[in-house]
Amino acid sequence: MSAITRPLGRLGRQVLAALAMVGRVAIFAANTVTHLARPPFYGREFLQALMQIGWLSLPVVGMTALFTGGALALQIYAGGARFNAETVVPSIVAIGLTRELGPVLGGLMVAARVASSIAAEIGTMKVTEQIDALVTLSTNPMKYLTLPRVLAATLAVPVLVGVGDVIGIMGGFLVGVGRLDFGAGTYLHNTIDFLETWDVVSGLIKGAVFGFIVALMGCYYGMQSGRGAQGVGRATKAAVVAASVLILASNYILTELFFSA
Amino acid sequence: MIELKDVHKAFGTNKVLQGVDLTIPTGTSMVIIGGSGTGKSVALKCILGLIRHDAGEILLDGKDVTKGDRDAFLARFGMLFQGGALFDSLPVWQNVAFRLLRGSLKRPKDEAREIAIEKLRRVGLKPEQADKFPAELSGGMQKRVGLARAIAAEPEIIFFDEPTTGLDPIMSGVINDLIREIVVEMGATAMTITHDMTSVRAIADNVAMLHDGVIKWTGPVAEMDASGDPYLDQFIHGRAEGPIEAVR
């Protein structure tokens, strides 16, 4: 009997622990958001975070978009050739990038770069008592550390996604014109004609949600970091994994909301 | 005056504080001694509200520290952390003037910098150090910067958590002297946690020995050597034999 109940008990404990964690993250998120309406605000920390998360992520997001756009053009051309539909390359590249690949790949690259760095930075601050020092200096760590980063990521990632969309479409254009014998004018014409405003806007909204998730996970796991180098390492890993999984899960939910019939 | 009345704190099954009673009169320097893991830092963090105690009362001038305006409460405190806890991303002067650059004590930037440089000078650091980052300083210098930050807003109460840990004996002596001078000069109430008996003799007006989650002995530093308390005797003489179990 115990051979049956023991695994069930273990499963139950894991489910309860997972639910408790979801609750803690939800409270952390709500606490962060409510600080938006409660001064003081730390503008300098927000601008620094904007620079770190937005500007410095541009090269990695741009490179990802460029190569993804190029590869997408090749794949669609090869696949489209089976149905004599090679001409759809520009429009499918544009729609695929703006709706799906731009925000998701951009979000994942930012998760790798930013969630890890935020978690490591805040985790190190925690183990070296810098968070306690902030409190004793009458500064709320949620206001000083979390809110500026979460706000900056929520605003910066859609901009990164927008820039990534343009660069990705340019990657498709370069491959289309250079390798697949499309005329430059025709390629651009097909891209613009079939692309709708909602394709772009839905991707930017996804970007904002992914930015929020990335910074929130970085801050949450940084604040929960255990002691020592191992604790900070675990927090960093957990932040990246959680941010990546949540990006993919929320992408599905948002796609359902935006595009299901 | 700071009063701890029957304060309890446990982490899971680990009962760290089991009824701490302690009074620190205004303007005096209290040093809490005790072995590692006896709850000295926990007691200090409970007073500051960094950790919430499970039971008992902590009073500051007769008022419960868990009630009332938290910012006003914290504005009365300065704290020197064990590792300095300096903010890596800020230059030294901004670390020192942290409180003066934001919040209710905010001053114009130039004035805050001037105060920071003055406090750095007070702890024996030259103005040239002001624009360096904490990582560019030695351990002793970082402790001094931490001390300058603790006194920057001229607090009424200053806490020192292991102020000489990791320092050589000469630097420890310098920090001890600085702490004593500053506390006397400012007329502040001080609470220090340390294992270092040289620090105890240099800094303390009164001493409290924490062991097994309770205060085993408390009294003036001058009476410490003749206390007759077996726990205190074993600790101050660093003997392996005695009522305090030495883990080998």
Automatic annotation (TrEMBL), chain A:
Protein localization: Cell inner membrane; Membrane
Keyword field contains Glycosyltransferase: no
Domain of life, source organism: Bacteria
Membrane-protein topology: Multi-pass membrane protein
A Pfam family per the record: MlaE
GO MF annotation terms: phospholipid transporter activity
InterPro entries: ABC_MlaE_roteobac, Permease_MalE
UniProt keyword terms in alphabetical order: Cell inner membrane, Cell membrane, Membrane, Transmembrane, Transmembrane helix, Transport
GO cellular component terms, semicolon-separated: ATP-binding cassette (ABC) transporter complex
TM ranges: 15-33, 53-74, 150-180, 200-223, 235-254
Family the entry assigns: Belongs to the MlaE permease family.
Function: Could be part of an ABC transporter complex.
Name by which UniProt lists this protein: Phospholipid/cholesterol/gamma-HCH transport system permease protein
Automatic annotation (TrEMBL), chain B:
Residue ranges of every copy of the ABC transporter domain listed in the record: 2-237
One Pfam entry name: ABC_tran
InterPro entries, sorted: AAA+_ATPase, ABC_transporter-like_ATP-bd, ABC_transporter-like_CS, P-loop_NTPase
A single GO molecular function term of this UniProt record: ATP binding
Keywords: ATP-binding, Nucleotide-binding, Transport
Highest taxon in the source lineage: Bacteria
Protein name: Phospholipid/cholesterol/gamma-HCH transport system ATP-binding protein
Organism: Roseovarius pacificus
